[in-house]
Amino acid sequence: MKKLDFSQPLMVLAPLAGYTDLPFRAVVKKFGADLTISEMISSNALVYNSQKTFKMIEKSPSEDPYFVQIAGNKAELVRDAVEILNDMEGIDGIDLNCGCPAPKVFNHGSGSNLLGDLKKLEEILGTVKKYNKKLYTSAKVRIGVNEKIPVDIAKAVESCGVDFISVHGRTRAGKYKAPVDYDAIKAIKEAVSIPVIANGDIKDYAKAKEVLAHTKADGLMIGRGAIGKPWIFYQLKNGVEDISEDIKKAIILEHYDAVLRFHGEHGAIMFRKLLHSYSKGYNGASEFRDIINTIKEPDIMRDTIESFFTENELQN
């Protein structure tokens, strides 16, 4: 049974370390994301039974379909990680990270390091495909390490028999600052027969429409563009440019409540960094941030959030 429908552009939440935990994924799922993916999971941590890692894999009942993204550079460890995931209920696909530019991931030989050795990439991704008993296998890539080789990478990925590829339109050297090369994503779309998901700097509704039109991609993967603006999925799903302040407030409070349920009382402190993003551009945002940085009590935090966004709602 297929759970992904590519007849319409697929809207995917990108895995983002420290942000796309279960509460955040549940919120974007409710408001329009077609597919959610776990934060990047180390194959080593999974195989060596890290409890923190197993907590990161937990999903909300609403996350259907749901993928787990793994990283790894040793075929045997990746195989063992896949077999552990095979025994877990509620996972529909396994995604291999071939794009993370972080030095500790790259220097370990994982993530975007694989783009510098396409034979190695094929070995690791082929291992995922061979042992994966879930519905889907996919890969997330960049367009090179230092030089751009988008089509070579895409053809290597396609040769492993994956169901689709997600492409961040920068090299590893480009980190998150270089201009995104949407032409490279378009070239990949033209070169392979599997669905292609475009990723990179898709920060608002207008940009999302522009990227889809330019690349002819089969969907969009949005990561940092959803931090502080998870309603971007609601906009894309419903074809609306403007979101009312009351919907924004409802999403923020729902996110806060979900964080408390999942992380316990400490969630109030964890939510501060998210409130810094949510409050950007609002009147009194700077004072609001100063206040919430001192609050530890969940109830007081919730009241403060509600009154701040209600006040701004009334002013608009």
Automatic annotation (TrEMBL):
Residue numbers annotated as active site: C100 (proton donor)
The chemistry this enzyme catalyses reads:
a 5,6-dihydrouridine in tRNA + NAD(+) = a uridine in tRNA + NADH + H(+); a 5,6-dihydrouridine in tRNA + NADP(+) = a uridine in tRNA + NADPH + H(+)
**UniProt keyword terms in alphabetical order:** Flavoprotein, FMN, NADP, Nucleotide-binding, Oxidoreductase, RNA-binding, tRNA processing, tRNA-binding
Name the cofactor(s) required for activity, per the record. Answer: FMN
Q: What are the residue boundaries of the DUS-like FMN-binding domain, all occurrences included?
A: 13-305
Organism's domain of life? Bacteria
Q: Which InterPro entries match?
A: Aldolase_TIM (IPR013785), DUS-like_FMN-bd (IPR035587), DUS_fam (IPR001269), tRNA-dHydroUridine_Synthase_C (IPR024036), tRNA_hU_synthase_CS (IPR018517)
Q: Which family does it belong to?
A: Belongs to the dus family.
Function comment: Catalyzes the synthesis of 5,6-dihydrouridine (D), a modified base found in the D-loop of most tRNAs, via the reduction of the C5-C6 double bond in target uridines.
Query: What is this protein identified as?
Result: tRNA-dihydrouridine synthase
